[in-house]
Amino acid sequence: MTFRLIDTHCHFEPGDDAPALLADAAAAGVGVLAVGGSPALNATAAASGTWFAHGLDWSAEGAPGPLPGDPRLVAVGELGFDFHRKGPETADAQRALFEAQAAQARARGLPVIVHTREADDLTLSALRAAALPRAGVIHSFTGGLALARACLDLGYFISFSGILTFRNAGALREVARHVPADRLLVETDSPYLAPVPHRGARNRPALVAATAACLAGLRGLRPEALAELTTANAARLFGLS
Ligand SMILES: [Zn+2]
Description:
TIM Barrel; 8-stranded parallel beta sheet
């Protein structure tokens, strides 16, 4: 099955009807990468029936478990760094958890899906030290142009969520104009962050089309051309087939 767009970052929460959400997405031409980040989200992602990622995010404590041996596992994540919701005293723990998972990604030849919020220095230093051969993606990017450029230099893709469509996101839209075409991805991060004009609604993978349309407009591309290039990028980064 070929998809017009790929939602490269969706979470299925316990109790969600993943088959119905995937069917709704497929009807809109949208393929889905289901992303973990906690034991509960890892379980729903693996059980959803689509491509998935397995990992522990910045809020987790302890060591990551082994990666599942499933051919639909296409990435490690989400993982990463957050000093918006965690204090600076957690820096070493956040870094250690990242390093343990970067080692798993390297051993399995997988890319990583990175969350970073108010943690530019730690993120760059950890990504640099990990030097992962397949790099990965900075998901739901909200940083500045300097962070974007540094991540691009390290081989990472940049993924934009519905935040790109928010009224107060002018600086982010400027960043989105500067990302090379071969490193752009789109995502929903559903069930959160529904794009305009769906704000306030529960987000779902099919709504990635609104973010893609916004991105196409910013870059002076037809929606079809933007869809084609972001889908090709997702297929290349995650080895989707
Ligand atoms: Zn997420």
